[in-house]
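call fold(seq) -> tokens
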Amino acid sequence: MLTTTFGKFIMTFLISMVPVVELRGGLPYGILAGLSLPMAATAAILGNMLPVPFIIVFIEQIFAWLRRHFPKMDRFIGSLEKRAESKQETVDKYGALGLILLVAIPLPGTGAWTGSLVAALMKMRLQKAVPCIFLGVIIAAVLMTVITKLGIFAFF
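ret:
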């Protein structure tokens, strides 16, 4: 399956859904696996964006449920919330542009998952957060395409 174009598309999509890895791993995978740039970008962007509305809407309830049923998860959840709160200052200071930049910069601790968590903790409306995160994902896709095509990705 992974040797077909469809298989490579699905794998790129799935890799891009994974927290931390996200589009930063999915898009280079798709390009290096031989997908055309438009196909790799489409799969990576769609995969990266799919979890966004669910995170924004449900993450607080999920965290509360995990804390209730798995008290040992509290420390881990607390660290995720603390990391998101540290990123929240940028969004508070720069508004929508801050959220776009938080998602767009392809560095550890940034991306659509972190942007979605920040938006959720800030009680940002879905209608405001999703377009900002989407624009950030598009910018990240452009940056990762350039990095991948220049071969810089091989040095990381």
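The helical segments are 5-17, 22-32, 37-49, 51-69, 74-94, 96-104, 112-121, 126-149.
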